[in-house]
Amino acid sequence: MIRIVIADDEELVRGALVALLSLETDIEVVADVRDGRDAVDAALAHRPDVVLLDLEMPHLDGIDAARELRTLVECQTIIVTRHARPGTLKRALAAQVSGFVPKSTPASQLATIIRSVAFGERYIDVQLATAALTEAESPLTDREADVLRLTRAGLPTKEIARALHLAHGTVRNHLSSAMSKLHSSSRVTAAELAHDNGWI
Q1: What are the CA-CA distances from residue 121 to residues 6, 116, 182 (Å)?
Q2: Which residues partner with 79 through β-bridges?
Q3: Burial 51-84 (b: 16+ CB within 10 A, else e)
């Protein structure tokens, strides 16, 4: 029996996944939760074989949750997303996820993917992989990406400085550089543009 945790902040989608995957005779849904932080907690409590993670969730997105799970629990992770961007695929691969699929994937195919991932294989959606090979590289440095990621999370610059253990002026310099590279008039629009391109 393949034991899975499902994490998705959309109740309807999560409920449908639970119902459809529970019909599979070799898959058991041991927990379903609404955000990335709860997914990590559920995985620690239930020790599943596979954790199915929505990409965009409150508190901790799917990729960051997968990164935490890699160090805490011996399980495989699959990112499921409605708004798949090639740059996000690169982030997911860097986090060593085992699967990356769009939410349009039929339940029967998703069950097959879960089985293959549970047995140590990796599954990446072909269209996303093809797009990733032709995508331009991010113009941002790692630190610029970090400050934009926290900007998008709603943190003011002083809190970003505290979170990253940087001087306030250094954070402002990183933001200014990122805004210039992305031709954005504000740090918020720069963060959204970087997110839309899958760079953060």
Answers
A1: 19, 5, 37
A2: 53, 100
A3: bbbbbbbeebbbbbbbbbbeeebebbbbbbbeeb
Question: At a CB cut-off of 8 Å and minimum separation 6, what does 103 contact?
Answer: 13, 80, 81, 82
83 close to 55: Cβ distance less than 8 angstroms: yes
Q: Which domains does the chain have, with CATH numbers?
A: 2-134 (3.40.50.2300), 142-196 (1.10.10.10)
Q: Which helix (H) or strand (E) holds 140?
A: none
Q: What is the maximum span of the chain, computed from C-alpha positions, in angstroms?
A: 57
Name the more confident of 63 and 127.
63
Residue 198 reports pLDDT greater than 80: no
Question: Which amino acid belongs to residue 120?
Answer: G
The label of the residue with tokens 């629990």 reads 73
Q: Which two tokens stand for residue 159?
A: 């809190």
Instruction: Report the predicted TM-score, pTM, of the whole model to 2 decimal places.
Output: 0.73
